[in-house]
Amino acid sequence: MSTRRGVLSGREKAAILLITLGPDLSSQVMKHMKEEDIDVLTLEIAGTKRVDQDVRDQVLSEFADMAIAQQYIDEGGIEYAKVLLEKALGKEKAVDVLGRLTASLQVRPFDFARKAEPTQLLNFLESESPQTIALILSYLAPNQSGAILASLAPDLQVEVARRIAAMEGTSPEVIKEIERILERKLVNVVGQDYTRTGGVGAIVDILNNVDRQTEKTILNALDVEAPELSEEIKRRMFLFDDIIYLDDRAVQRFLREVDMSKDLPLALKAASDEVKEKIYKNLSSRAVETLKESIDYLGPVRMRDVEDAQQRIVAIIRRLEDQGEIVVGRGGGDDVVV
């Protein structure tokens, strides 16, 4: 792929920056990145054949502006940075740089509640409406929300789960008022950290942290009340990376159903080393050799194609679980009887 000046995605910019920095500096940068981000950027870099000089200059200039803005914010806060950047870059560009830089730095609602024990939060939430409980749980860490959800009455569990999944936006004034009330109640028992938002992804993360009975209660009820939502949640409950938690017998079983020549090599192209080793462990040495050759032969591939292949494999695992042929553990709470 040849990269020319135009509208670049964040991934493209990151790849161009690393290419421009060179291997020594780029390797130091990558040490501080998440493994999945490294995989994505490696594919992007591999697919970038040539970068025009004006594109390099554009990316480097933007990176420099962002670095300077971050320095100003660290020194004196947003307003201080705004004044200095307007003088250096002009008002319009200063607003653009700060907008992009601070989008991920905004203080999220209910930060103060993240380090409270679930039992402490439960005492304050049990008397609240399902919508209020759903709002608060969608901003907490999944392990907190899962523990609280599992402790609610079954009917309330289903209603709260449904509302979290359907949540799209809430008035900032409403959030601030609920936050103010809860903070006042918890002022002596809470700390600070970062949080997450609502939506299907949030309820999936939460259900991955509840016991199996709570999960079944909620999903069975949603099968009746909101079947499309229930199916979407089920589809996303087990992630491809969760293969490492399957026992060897389950891995061997689902591998018999997988397209070994197409889907498996593609799915493993951007998989973690742990997932790859789990798969290799349950194949013959000859099959492992063939699989590795197939992965290498693929060359650069689109991340979307990798994710689609992974999702097809996940669908097989979910089907086998539903049929009772394999057991999918959810970390810590399931007893398996052999």
Mean pLDDT: 76
Number of strands: 2
Please provide the ordered H/E string of secondary-structure elements: EHHHEHHHHHHHHHHHHHHH
User: Which percent bin holds the helix content?
Assistant: 55-70%
What share of the residues does DSSP label as strand, in percent? under 5%
Q: What is the global morphology?
A: flat
**Main sheet: which strands, in order across?**
1-2
Sequence stretches where pLDDT stays below 50 over 5 or more residues: 188-197, 331-338
Structural class: mainly alpha
Q: Tally the helices.
A: 18
Q: Roughly how many Å apart are the termini?
A: 53 Å
- CA gyration radius, whole angstroms: 24 Å
Largest sheet: 2 strands, parallel
Quickly list its features.
338 residues, mainly alpha, 2 strands, flat, disordered C terminus, two-stranded parallel ribbon
SSE topology sketch:
Blueprint: E1 2-3, H1 10-21, H2 23-30, H3 35-46, E2 50-51, H4 53-89, H5 91-102, H6 118-125, H7 130-139, H8 142-151, H9 154-166, H10 172-186, H11 200-207, H12 212-225, H13 227-237, H14 248-255, H15 263-268, H16 273-281, H17 285-298, H18 303-322
Parallel strand pairs: 1-2
